[in-house]
Amino acid sequence: MCSGGEDERFICISEVCARYFRTHSYRRPTNIEMPIVEVGGLDSGRKPSRLEKPVTVHAHHLINPWRAIKKREIDNTTNAIEAWIRARGHAKKFDKVVNVAIKALRENKHVRIVCRAGRHRSQAVARCVVSQLPHMMIELNFLEEVTPVSTVAQSVS
Description:
Blueprint: E1 2-3, E2 9-10, H1 15-23, E3 36-41, E4 55-58, H2 66-70, H3 78-106, E5 111-115, H4 121-131, E6 139-142
Parallel strand pairs: 3-5, 3-6, 4-5
Antiparallel strand pairs: 1-2
């Protein structure tokens, strides 16, 4: 997991990105325009979007892993959440949500991925989206608590 400061949180998904961030500190280039993926929730009390006119991708219609996580049937990691959603017969829905976000990012549009609380489904979708675009510079902002990619998190300052 890579942190860009107290205000913004970033997560490195692809192996190329992860290798780079193990050896370099991250500072967002001010002269480069890059699309932003913002991950958040729809419930009242959740932080509002900071993006102007993003493409909103809804992950709330995917099966909710919250109860399985609470019962400790699955780990609270985006990898485990994605596998659990796919195993429950929602692979096509998951892929459709991912593809909508990828299409918007390739058109250099900002994307907001939302589910109910912004902690599980939307973060699993965001991880999948960013991992499928390893050569594209994307800023990834989490408005809620960050779910780790795996149980072993790497921190880089």
